């Protein structure tokens, strides 16, 4: 596999990443930082999910230091519990006790650079809702018109963004937030519970809240899509040592740098977890990065517009997602359903969600490897 230049959009997409790191969240963060010609990362927030909030916030702080992220990007602490439901136990069998087990060379939590990220907006309490408020208000003109838009990428439970929508519904629907790209849900594939994918099962009321909007569509990356994003051994070999001619059955090459070793150990832990938990022998699925990829390269992720609902009952179907599809397969902006979504009518269910369905996996892996190359160069020239 070889890398190639990444196609540049007309201008970078303003993006806020709401995450619960998490091994695949870590890869999503890498793409959000290093797809600079496509993504302008305006903020990051953490939430309870793959681990308790205390740990996901630690993990985000360590990753931002590892990746040498610009310190101008704010990191805000989000919610430690779902909007309404009781806590769902974290998936220790997938991400380990810390939420990011197995990663070598992570800067320790007491490192001054990590602490600067961690304590940027205080040491306790959720600051995310007011951060979203400021983010939206700063992009509105005095007459209420929109100066620029922001896309929300949600790779964990939707708690933080839904809490903002509940407190400031007029700001959520002001036109500044143009979409909420959510990793979650599934249709007729094995899930965390018999009926529900983990992110949605953790806080189904939060996704239900976002789906009530008639101005901010949800873009969904369900398991049906993300299970196509397999990080296989060939890609692993290229991540460790670009240009290596690796053959199946041979040992993987040695990493060219500590940074590549960090990513390799991260994804090796994730791979073994997916073998043990789900029997994925070809490699782990990289769920969360596809939400970032949608903004950078929507052509790689076609799908269909649909009316999406989520079960919020106190039954075994809690968190189940169901979709009524309207359109032929295409990209987010191609079909008239976007206009149907934005219109006001009472003729019954209308589109509230664009469900991504297929992935150009080789092209995605090229994007990932190019981001690794870019990050490695920055890290080599930016000591902590």
The named CATH superfamily: Ribonucleoside hydrolase-like
State the end-to-end CA separation: 32 Å
Strand tally is: 9
Spatial ordering of strands, largest sheet: 3-2-1-4-5-6-9-7-8
Shape: globular
At CATH level 2, the architecture is: Alpha-Beta Complex
Low-confidence stretches are 1-6
User: What name does CATH use for the topology?
Assistant: Inosine-uridine Nucleoside N-ribohydrolase, Chain A
Question: In the CATH hierarchy, what is the class?
Answer: Alpha Beta
* Strand/helix succession: EHEHEHHHEHHEHHEHHHHEEHEH
Overall residue-averaged pLDDT value: 92
Please state the CA-atom Rg, rounded to the nearest Å: 20 Å
Supply the helix-strand structural class: alpha/beta
**Percent helix:** 25-40%
Question: What brief labels describe this structure?
Answer:
Inosine-uridine Nucleoside N-ribohydrolase, Chain A; 9 strands; globular; 384 residues; alpha/beta; disordered N terminus; 15 helices; nine-stranded mixed β-sheet
Per-chain topology:
Layout lengths: L12 E7 L3 H12 L4 E8 L6 H14 L8 E3 L14 H4 L16 H7 L9 H10 L12 E5 L4 H9 L1 H4 L4 E7 L14 H5 L1 H8 L6 E4 L1 H4 L6 H8 L17 H21 L10 H8 L6 E8 L10 E5 L11 H6 L10 E4 L4 H20 L4
Parallel strand pairs: 1-2, 1-4, 2-3, 4-5, 5-6, 6-9
Antiparallel strand pairs: 7-8, 7-9
Helix pairs in contact: 1-13, 1-15, 2-4, 5-6, 6-9
Account of the 3D structure:
By secondary structure, the protein is α/β, with parallel strands linked by helices. It has 15 helices and 9 strands. It has a single domain (15-231, 280-380), classed as Alpha-Beta Complex (Inosine-uridine Nucleoside N-ribohydrolase, Chain A). Strand 2 (39-46), helix 2 (53-66) and strand 3 form a beta-alpha-beta unit. The longest helix has 21 residues, at 258-278. 49% of the residues are buried.
